Amino acid sequence: MSKLLLVDDDVDLTTMLKDYLEREGFSITAVNDGESAVREALHGDYALAVMDVMMPGMTGIEALSRIRMHSQMPVLMLTARGDDIDRIIGLELGADDYVPKPCMPRELVARIRAILRRARPESLISSHDPLQIGALTLWPEKRHAALNGQTLDLTSTEFNLLEVLAQQAGQTVSKADLSTHGLGRPLTRYDRSIDVHMSSIRHKLGQLPDGHSCIQTVRGVGYQLVRE
To answer: What are phi and psi for residue 148, nearest 5 degrees?
Structure first.
């Protein structure tokens, strides 16, 4: 049974979602403010947090920022429908995905299960050998990545996207495939999640000796991890 942290200042909504998620087989701890969310996230043993963006006092964005200073626990953000700014800021700060509010509980459960599968998936390859692309090394079964021997601090979603690119290094991977295999859901129109995650991964990987990124954009198609 996966233990989840549910955070929303709407007590009635929180109660409804808690009951629904528990019927779906999850163990739920619910809190109603950002301060409590940070405290629980950093001291509880949670598989994932579902957190609303708009809360009085400490917002969900602020809480996410504090959590990411110390933890890479998967976080699913609940955002106002059509509010692209909050969505992008959340992804830039390390949110794994988002669901617009109001949302269908079944969609929320589907997104949660997709993130949990990605957080502990079976490798796309059966070998226990690491993936080696230039100075980059990935150990899929251990969910560990290193660059020049130094550990890369990646979120669960970032690791999955990087693994998809590494599996097909030197080839262009479409945004649709990255969304399906990295986010666990089909790509939707106007969805910039892949682009935001890729920007974060590029920042963490740094530049090649020639000043370019090892992740190249193939305009209108997707991304490619360059073989050095």
So the answer is: 55, 35
Q: What is the DSSP letter of 207?
A: B
Q: Is the pTM of this model over 0.70?
A: yes
Residue-level pLDDT at 179: 94
CATH number of 3-119: 3.40.50.2300
Element (H, E) at 6: strand 3-7
- Between the alpha carbon of residue 42 and those of residues 76, 145, 168, the distances in Å are 16, 23, 35
Q: What is the pLDDT of residues 105-121, one digit of tens each?
A: 999 999 999 999 887 65
Encoded tokens for 79:
């955002």
Mean pLDDT for the chain overall:
90
Which residue ranges make up each domain of the chain?
Answer: 3-119, 131-225
Residue 72 CA to residue 94 CA, distance in Å, equals: 8
* First and final C-alpha spacing in the chain: 43
Per-residue model confidence as pLDDT tens digits over 136-177: 999 988 889 999 999 999 999 999 999 999 999 999 999 999
> Which CATH code of 1.20.210.10, 1.10.10.10, 3.40.50.300, 1.10.1740.10 fits the domain covering 131-225?
1.10.10.10
- Main-chain phi, psi angles of 28, to 5 degrees: -115, 130
Is the CB of residue 61 less than 8 Å from the CB of residue 89?
yes
Who's near 46: CB < 8 A, 6+ residues apart?
3, 4, 5, 29, 40, 73
